[in-house]
Amino acid sequence: xxxLTISDIDTQRANSGLLSTTVAGYTSSDLFKSSNSNRHxxxxxxxxxLSVESRNFFGSELKKSSNQVFKTHMIPLGTGRxxxxxxxxxxxxxxxxxxxxxxxxACSTNNAxxxxxxRTIAKKGGDYDIARGLNYSHAAGLPALLxxxxxxxxxVHNPPYKNWATCLSCGSTxxxxxxxxxxxxxxxxxxxxxxxxxxxxxxxxLLGVHTIGIEMDAFGLMPDSLERTLRxxxxxxxxxxxxxYTIPSGQNPTGVTQSLQRKNDIYQVAxxxxxxxxxxxxxxxxxxxxxxxxxxxxxxxxxxxLATASGYLASLPSSLLALDISGRIVRLDSFxxxxxxxxxxxxxxxxxQIIDKFIAxxxxxxxxxxxxxxxxxxxxxxxxxxxLGFFSxxxxxxxxxRSRLRILLNACDQYFPKEVCKWTPPQNGMFLWTSLDLRKxxxxxxxxxxxxxxxxxxxxxCDIEARILAKALEKGVQITMGSLFSTNQxxxxxxxxRMTFAAADESEIEVGIEKVASVIREEFAIxxxxxxxxxxxxx
Amino acid sequence: xxxLTISDIDTQRANSGLLSTTVAGYTSSDLFKSSNSNRHxxxxxxxxxLSVESRNFFGSELKKSSNQVFKTHMIPLGTGRxxxxxxxxxxxxxxxxxxxxxxxxACSTNNAxxxxxxRTIAKKGGDYDIARGLNYSHAAGLPALLxxxxxxxxxVHNPPYKNWATCLSCGSTxxxxxxxxxxxxxxxxxxxxxxxxxxxxxxxxLLGVHTIGIEMDAFGLMPDSLERTLRxxxxxxxxxxxxxYTIPSGQNPTGVTQSLQRKNDIYQVAxxxxxxxxxxxxxxxxxxxxxxxxxxxxxxxxxxxLATASGYLASLPSSLLALDISGRIVRLDSFxxxxxxxxxxxxxxxxxQIIDKFIAxxxxxxxxxxxxxxxxxxxxxxxxxxxLGFFSxxxxxxxxxRSRLRILLNACDQYFPKEVCKWTPPQNGMFLWTSLDLRKxxxxxxxxxxxxxxxxxxxxxCDIEARILAKALEKGVQITMGSLFSTNQxxxxxxxxRMTFAAADESEIEVGIEKVASVIREEFAIxxxxxxxxxxxxx
Lengths: 539, 539
Description:
The structure is a homodimer.
Chain A: H1 9-15, H2 52-55, H3 61-65, E1 75-76, E2 89-96, H4 100-106, H5 108-111, E3 118-121, H6 130-133, H7 143-156, E4 164-169, H8 172-183, E5 189-193, H9 198-206, E6 210-214, E7 216-217, E8 220-221, H10 223-231, E9 243-246, H11 260-272, E10 276-280, H12 300-307, H13 309-315, E11 329-334, E12 346-351, H14 352-363, H15 371-415, E13 421-423, E14 431-437, H16 442-448, H17 461-474, E15 477-478, E16 480-481, E17 494-500, H18 506-523, H19 529-538
Parallel strand pairs in A: 5-6, 9-10, 10-11
Antiparallel strand pairs in A: 2-3, 4-12, 7-8, 11-12, 13-14, 14-17, 16-17
Helix pairs in contact in A: 4-15, 7-15, 8-9, 8-14, 12-13, 13-15, 15-18, 17-18
């Protein structure tokens, strides 16, 4: 049975479960998967990996009592779900941005005539409306939105085990908090990249969970280092870690993307040590491979293949989820970086055992993703774009961001002093990670030019980092200091900065980099002290 | 210094802190309070009441690093907050419901000309726009929305201590989860009403926290019973409870509202035993006092006074927060029952020490309330309605719900067999709590008509409750069984049902009740067996 493709979606929907039409109607991704996953084996149980807190928790009795699906209308005298008669809003009309037009032509084969400038969501009617969309919703999502997301997951990742499942999350930061509560007890340690998303470190700190940074190279987290950390774990530090948290694409903050070989090797270590792997992948769809834009120089057939949405889909790399035969990957996706962050929405994919835990946690906390958010997503993704349109959007967005990345890289090339600055263009995401070679800083050079034998107690890195940050702000540019991302001791030979091309106006990027460069040149005395040293050295 | 009134708001705003205009700009309710609270003393510290988890947690370093407020524009090369240029939405237009018209006339003195049929939120401009509203937001809320909510809290509750603070929550269920994590460790017990919101019991169960139900009467939770439970606490059950969770208005499920005397007495016990009190008050604004509608028979001056928004405001009872001189009340408010549940938004008021903890928790989980939700709230509450319009909405909504309550009560009066059914009209909220006298059930009567000496092992209540629920569903009516709300053992002399007049179409309420009544009559054999018994008894 071949994997699900976009052209199968209509048939797939005709054969899939009905959309519940009641308020907060029961739904499950199981209703919307193709039978394709039935040919795979079930996942292994992760029961032994559940925390004390999550192990015996199955959600809200009240919610479950209202999960019953009725064939006929019931007079609702039971649940406290106010009638839509008393909502203060009658309808919402959403206008789309101009970028939509390119998408319209990209997916012109199937729904160009469904792409109006605006769309109105009415009080009642259709697969979604204000009456249900602004009432309580099932924690997994509005049925039609969960259907779209389930299909999307199957199209992109096609997880190779039977009982995978998907639910919405209130954004990946929220999903990460829930994931750590599901899998960790106080005193546990989790494995992360040595520089990582500070939100992960913060929530681990909240939960009394230690973060153990694993070394990285140009292909991401190093499996050897991961394996060694596990093999040589000293139990006096607490139980050996059972959870790996990794950002595989356009890693935050380093911008590094794991190669397929690297993903396979990491997965093998996870299998050997029975790890749960939290695959936090918000930058997966933002493809920054500048080589792709050379298609402009290709012949038209090749160009068309790469420029269409299905070409984009085919070009996406394998995720860890796509390699996961055991059901040990908990994949977090987010709308934040690909639509807008304020939606506070994303989706989680894992075995049904784990997704049921996510739903249970959400039932007693956030209850569901915001209704206005879900309505905007449904309207955009399902009704307006469809799957092809969504991939086309992601393709177009990647192209636009690549153009900004190129501006950033050109500016770095032009202004940054290469004697001390190093950076590598990212393959994904929105960050450029820049290192400054501290051994070439005047303070260090003047102290001990030959041996660079700094002791940790004598570490000037923090001062230098803070000074550069402050001077950049004085000049009107905000950059993010690398130490904020460190899980281990601050290194004493490097200072790092994270920069992004995603937030500023395009016209500001070059002047911003020029100012940062001038701060670095000044801090490192590139044009005076360091130049003299160099001249002395070469003389 | 007199308390803040609606007419002071313009001056108050002129004197209050500026609204940050940057993405996810720093904000705090401290910027928006009047100087009125300065005349009060500071709250007592609740540090000794913080859980192991929350005590040393202060939120996200990353968020705090971007809390800095700049006077001039900064080129944002640091934070990963995508530019609004790449949002797929250009604007959102929201149409209001007809009920708005009454509000328009109610607050016609100050902003009738600000009440258009619809309003468009543009990409950029004004106090709020899509560019910032759909980007990351400060965990406390968008500045202009937090300002409105802070003013609202001061207008309604005017907390009598200096350092009270407010932040948005992702709904009260979410706020309750966070509150219990802030104050409870595994193995702790919290005090609740003997019948309470199942979501509270579920989240306590998740956290390994026991719920101890306190007896209630017609005025709500009984202070004597509360005090006795604390005084006679057996430490072998774990530490003596330090948290009381209470729903003071239109209690879920009983519909009972605490009198002012009752609130004072409960607060005194809280002071004596140094309790933290979680005041979960989603039904506070839904005033179901049917006596109020006799104003229709009053002279026109009295009627006008009660029918205007400021009359409504004056008629609101004192909350526990309004009595709180020590800062031990954590008040949870929600938009769910007064606007729509799908917003997933509410607000929390407590001492700044506790609000800082809420913000810290939200920073590493949900990050912020959904942007579309916040934009809809801002547009409706602040721009369109203003404070007077909001109170007018709440007044109008209460009037409409009272009309539905009257339909429900009339139907109960007409159809329910009074031999076995008892109910009391609620003073607030949306629930009617009905008890069935099990001692009059044929099974019991036939067993032991005189003494009713049932042993718990012999308890038929669950069967009877389940049978009534199932039969009602067969007839097309959904009601909620009382045992779902019980914190203690199921009683053996009563069966309870919770019914609401808020969810069904108004025209369905009577027929729904008629059907439920017929199920009860059948179950209790009112028209056959029980009638015979009665006749025998009276003969």
